[in-house]
Design a protein that fits this description.
This protein is mainly beta and 394 residues long. The protein has a single domain, classed as TolB, C-terminal domain (Neuraminidase, 6 Propeller). 2% of the residues lie in helices and 36% in strands. It has 2 helices and 29 strands. It has a 4-stranded antiparallel beta sheet, with no helix packed on it. It has a 4-stranded antiparallel beta sheet with strand order 8-9-10-11, with no helix packed on it.
Length: 394
């Protein structure tokens, strides 16, 4: 997707020795006991209320070395659901070890921290600490980098594909292969694929009608089978130009392997899609569809779509828990306010209603992470210059 990130979000739910997630089941050998959330045990998490959990030692508004967009991405360690990571523009990576309540950082220093961009953690990752992928559109770390020690040290890798300007959004990661990545260019219609964790890259050839927008967002669609998920991708064009496209043949299909499945596009930047399981249901958000703006739902792995919710809201991200599906808007312009336009629907996500904007939340997210402490689903939003926000679902 391009999800700022494409990111399928890391929803986890306690279930014996297996951890269910939006990206499929984590194998039993990766399952871990969820540590008790001290906030929940103490009754201080205030389920049902949004809380600003931005670290006190970050700068969300000043014009720093690489242009300060605040925080745009937040990720969950799939093997340790109490641990989350977030990137703050021009300042580096912060980590939480208590389900997003408190944060420590920066973990990295020097050029790798000088990044306006975001991070992705593979949805199934055996490494501890996890592998982090970082892509930047401004700063000394422009381009693609990888950390194998939880965001402390970074190595940059060239993405030598035609049309590249060395500016990228964080990669989408195959839910069955942590080294299989899809990368979306910033400001250019460029897509790339890696099969070795970002060490080398190959061009993804697009259909000519996909290239009208500046940024082409790309995501994996989880079919429930590793072999077909490998080549089933969804691409959403930017700002009303190119529509939504799907392929089941991956890069091997070339330009002819893409089919336009909707006229929906995403706001400038990227967005975030959501799959609750591998049964075929997929959600996306966007604008300028012939069906309206807002939330779109597929029951056949993205081949066909229907519109739900308010058709006038320019939603950017959609995410979910075991109970509900949520959609929100996030403004990419630094320092400006916008209504997060929160909508919510009880699963299976067909009857939507608006929710009042929490006091102080002046911007919505570019990316959302969802985890669980075994008692509650916990949502953490990366809300640009409004910082990190946390919600414990009742």
């Amino acid at each position: 997707m391009a999800r700022w990130f494409p990111l399928l979000i890391g929803l986890t739910a306690c279930s014996g020795t297996t951890t269910a997630s939006l990206d499929g089941d984590v194998p039993a050998d990766l399952a871990v006991r969820r540590p008790d959330d001290p906030c929940a045990l103490a009754g201080g998490c205030a389920p049902g209320k949004w809380v600003d959990v931005t670290p006190p030692n970050v700068d969300l508004t000043d014009h720093l070395s690489c242009d300060n967009f605040g925080t745009e991405t937040v990720q969950v360690d799939p093997a340790h659901p109490e641990q989350l990571y977030a990137l703050f523009s021009c300042q580096g990576i912060w980590r939480s070890t208590d389900y997003g309540q408190t944060w420590t950082g920066p973990l990295n220093q020097g050029d790798s921290a000088d990044c306006a961009g975001g991070i992705t953690i593979p949805p199934v990752d055996t490494a501890s600490p996890p592998v982090l992928y970082q892509s930047c559109i401004r700063g000394k770390a422009t381009g693609f980098s990888r950390s194998t020690n939880g965001g402390v040290d970074w190595t940059r890798y060239d993405v030598n594909v035609p049309g590249s300007n060395n500016q990228f959004y964080p990669p989408a990661v195959d839910p069955y292969d942590p080294k299989h990545l899809l990368l979306s260019g910033h400001g250019v219609a460029v897509l790339a694929e890696s099969s070795d964790g970002g060490l080398t890259w190959s061009e993804i050839v697009m259909a000519s009608d996909m290239k009208g927008g500046a940024t082409v967002d790309i995501s994996f669609i989880d079919t429930g089978v590793a072999a077909t998920t490998h080549d089933t991708w969804l691409s959403i064009g930017q700002a009303g130009n190119t529509g939504t496209w799907r392929t089941t043949t991956g890069r091997a299909g070339g330009a002819g392997g893409w089919q336009q499945v909707e006229t929906n596009t995403h706001p400038p930047g990227i967005g975030q899609i959501y799959q609750p399981d591998t049964g075929g249901v997929v959600y996306m958000t966007g604008l300028y569809s012939k069906l309206g703006f807002g939330v779109f739902r597929s029951t056949d792995y993205g081949a066909t779509w229907a519109h739900f919710g308010d058709m006038n809201l320019q939603e950017r991200v959609v995410f979910g828990t075991a109970k509900n599906v949520y959609a929100m808007m996030g403004n990419e312009v630094p320092g400006t306010g916008s209504d997060p336009a929160i909508q919510v629907a009880a699963q299976p996500g067909t009857a939507w209603a608006g929710v009042a904007t929490p006091p102080g939340m002046t911007q919505g997210p570019l990316q959302v992470a969802v985890t669980s402490d075994g008692q509650h689903s916990i949502v953490v939003l990366a809300n640009w210059t409004a910082g990190l926000w946390r919600y414990v679902e009742p």
